Amino acid sequence: MGRGDLSDAEWERLRPFLSVSNGRCGSWRSHRQVIDGILHRVRTGVQWA
């Protein structure tokens, strides 16, 4: 877990609100990885492409 990433406890509180893959779409990235990436961009002010 990187600095500023969600803790396990925070992740467990968020998990019920996230969708589950239905198997028909392509492979999904980990929700946790995506959310940690978004939080990193928000914290650092990195420009969105």
Tell me about this structure.
With 49 residues, this protein is mainly alpha-helical. It contains two helices and no strands. It is flat. It starts with 7 loop residues before the first helix and ends in a 5-residue tail after the last helix.
Task: Chart the SSEs and their pairings.
Layout: H1 8-14, H2 31-44
Helix content: 40-55%
Q: Main sheet?
A: none
**Annotation, overall tally of beta strands:** 0
Tell me the distance between the termini.
Answer: 25 Å
Order of helices and strands: HH
Domain Insertion element IS402-like: 6-48
Protein name: Insertion element IS402-like domain-containing protein
Short précis:
Helices cover 43% and strands 0% of the residues. The chain is mostly helical and 49 residues long.
Can you give keywords for this protein?
0% strand; mainly alpha; 2 helices; 49 residues
